[in-house]
Amino acid sequence: MRVLVVEDHEELAHTVATGLRREGMAVDVALDGETALDRASVNRYDVVVLDRDLPGLHGDEVCRTLVRTGDPARVLMLTAAGTIDDRVSGLGIGADDYLPKPFAFAELVARIRALTRRAHPALPPVLVHGDLRLDPASRVATRAGLRLSLSPKEFAVLELLLAAGGAVVSAEELLERCWDEFADPFTQTVKVTVSRLRRKLGDPPLIETVPQAGYRI
Question: In this structure, which topology does domain 2-116 adopt according to CATH?
Fold first, then answer.
């Protein structure tokens, strides 16, 4: 899952980003609206966590632009104003969810995960393939009832492959969706991560390499 955090308070932005990375998400940060739209124009995000009260280009205009351009990212709007009218207004311009400040970090994580489950087609809360089960909310993956010890990136790759439902996922998409903007596009990190994941999943093998296309469950 890849998330863009748009927040002009730099310390808060990086604190939130660090916490989300610990939850296994790939996170980019933008400190203003113009940078946010630039990032969204070149990267595919699952969720944009958007501070409504941005200086310069207001968060409302960022949200309207994302909606107008057909960006598939879900928008979770944050604001210090928490009245019902504020929430109705934010949702009215295209936000998918609304969270007033100050907020509990656990609730922010839960709302981000809930938004990703609204993908098309909608994803179940627990992903299952044969004897493999992955619960994104609790960060637990098991095979044949035994818990798998996965790194955050291994978990993210497995989650994306399971969510694809047997469709091929390219190495480029895995890199884009599971790593942040600082990932080297020429690195072998995807291949290495998939190799480690295969070993941890054990036999019979679950991940197939499709030559010149990518990987699939």
Answer: Rossmann fold (3.40.50)
